[in-house]
Structure formats: structure tokens, C-alpha cells
Design a protein that fits this description.
Elements lengths: L1 H22 L4 H28 L6 H8 L4 E3 L5 E3 L1 H6 L8 E3 L8 E5 L7 E4 L8 H11 L1
Antiparallel strand pairs: 1-2, 3-4, 4-5
Organism: candidate division TA06 bacterium 34_109
Protein name: Type II secretion system protein GspG C-terminal domain-containing protein
């Protein structure tokens, strides 16, 4: 009988701790939400560099960012159909369902951020690893020296 009471109390304690921890800040749900947001920002960093290589500039405004970058979130599924991952990777991951974007010089840099869907609305951001330099000036200087 004592063993049964002990096991019952132990089980209830474990259930209580599990439930109470899952609702507190810093819970596994918060960590998962932040990780999802970081994963999206990592993908966005790669997509922005791909866009830069193709266009030699970053988008100039928030509106242009959504218009030009959203197509990069479209992938093909196993059946060869286009699937838009924007909803899954942006709208379902950030509290205001968007990534905020700004740039002071679209030829060199950008800054993008969003608030993760955790209890603190943690800000997660991305930017290019290094600012791009204007290579046209370097090429022109080299040509004038020769």
C-alpha cells in the first residue's frame, strides 16, 4: 500500500512539474519558437545573397523586399508542384506574420528582423556577413591605370 501511494505521488509530482514548466517563460515551446525563427533567418540570409548575386543589389524597400524575395520561398514538392513556404516559414513563425526589412544602401547591406512567437517575442535578425563593395569603381580605376 505504501508503495502504491509513493508511486502515485511521484507520478503526480512529475505531471505537475511537466505542466508547470511548459507554461513558464523559457520553456521548450519558447526554445522551439526561437529556433524556428532563427532557421527562417538563416534561410533568408542565403536567399538574400542569392538575390544579390543575381541582381547586384538588395531590395530597396519593405514592399520590394516582400515582392522580390517571396518567390524564393517557392519550392517544388515530390510531385513537381510549386509549394509556397512563405506562410510556413514566415507567417506561422513571427508574431506579426512578417519580416521587417530596411536598408541604408541597397548596393551594400540590409537589416531584416522579426519577433519570434515565444512568450517574450524575442527579436531574431539577419544581415549580410560583410558589406559588399562597389566593384565598378575598382574596375574603372584599374582600367585608367593601364
Amino acid at each position: 500500500m505504501k508503495k502504491l501511494v509513493f508511486l502515485t505521488l511521484t507520478f503526480l509530482l512529475i505531471v505537475f512539474l511537466t505542466v508547470s514548466c511548459s507554461k513558464n517563460k523559457g520553456s521548450f515551446m519558447d526554445f522551439a519558437a526561437i529556433k524556428d525563427a532563427q532557421r527562417t533567418m538563416t534561410k533568408l540570409t542565403n536567399l538574400m545573397e542569392q538575390y544579390y548575386v543575381e541582381n547586384e543589389t538588395y531590395p530597396a524597400t519593405q514592399e520590394e523586399f516582400v515582392e522580390k524575395i517571396r518567390p524564393y520561398f517557392i519550392v517544388k514538392n515530390a510531385e513537381g508542384q510549386d509549394v509556397d513556404k512563405w506562410v510556413e516559414m514566415v507567417e506561422n513563425v513571427f508574431t506579426d506574420k512578417t519580416i521587417h526589412y530596411q536598408t541604408t544602401d541597397p548596393k551594400k547591406t540590409y537589416f531584416a528582423y522579426g519577433r519570434a512567437k515565444d512568450s517574450n517575442s524575442t527579436i531574431v535578425f539577419c544581415r549580410p556577413p560583410l558589406q559588399h563593395i562597389d566593384t565598378t569603381l575598382t574596375v574603372e580605376k584599374t582600367k585608367t591605370k593601364k
